Amino acid sequence: MSMIALDQCSTSFDHLHYNLFPLMSALPIFSLDGRVAIVTGGSRGIGFEIARAMRESGAEVVIADRLRDEGEASSAELGARFMEVDVTSSGSVRDLVEQVTAAHGRIDILATIAGIAHNMPAEETTDEDWRRVMSVNLDGLFFCCREVGRVMLAQGKGVIVNMASMSGIIANHPQPQAAYNASKAGVILLTKSLAGEWAGRGVRVNAISPGYVGTPMTKLGLDTPEWKRVWLQETPLGRLAEPSEIAPLAVFLASDASSYMTGASVVIDGGYTAW
What we know:
Mean pLDDT: 92
CATH architecture: 3-Layer(aba) Sandwich
Helix content: 40-55%
Largest sheet: 7 strands, parallel
Radius of gyration: 18 Å
């Protein structure tokens, strides 16, 4: 599939975005009206679209990101609040949670979207490379779940939506990314573990496992012809997802519409893992 065709597909699904959320928010079961939501990594890409979707569904959104300029601009666009955080620092995460709780009195939703990818053969991956991926994708996600989880458990209610990946259940090819795959597998099992521990105390924990999504980071891979060929050829829908196509699932998992779901990792991959 040509890049022109990809762009044409993107346009049609951007149009879908603008018509979908008014419909969802009109249905009380999907409403996030008045709920307080933290979205880590919300300054751009999938995180931004999830922050936008939750805002349009009625939530008071806090975009938490280490990118101050982008975070402030994104927050201003959405009418959200920006707070700087380094998810790899448990102290920084604790400060974030304390400030949000002090300002709003509670936290109803946490969406842990912050993450990084690293494409390098396993035998060439240094200790530092490995730790960098794990510190953001797994350690940082756990720190956020732990600190927000404490608030939610005290409240007796709350919903956490973690960002996993289809890379947590399959080993991608042709690109080498052992550290990323391992980190996302960890997210899936951590999600199940937290769900089991906290279900009886009113806190639901689920994960989203996307396939290839047209974020700036993923689109760089399209510059490698072999990667592009495999990604598109092995995705039955034949294209990348748009970030706005992932966002409705996050709203669903955060809302009362998914009240009987916990411990799930929902795959949204254009059919990639069906073959």
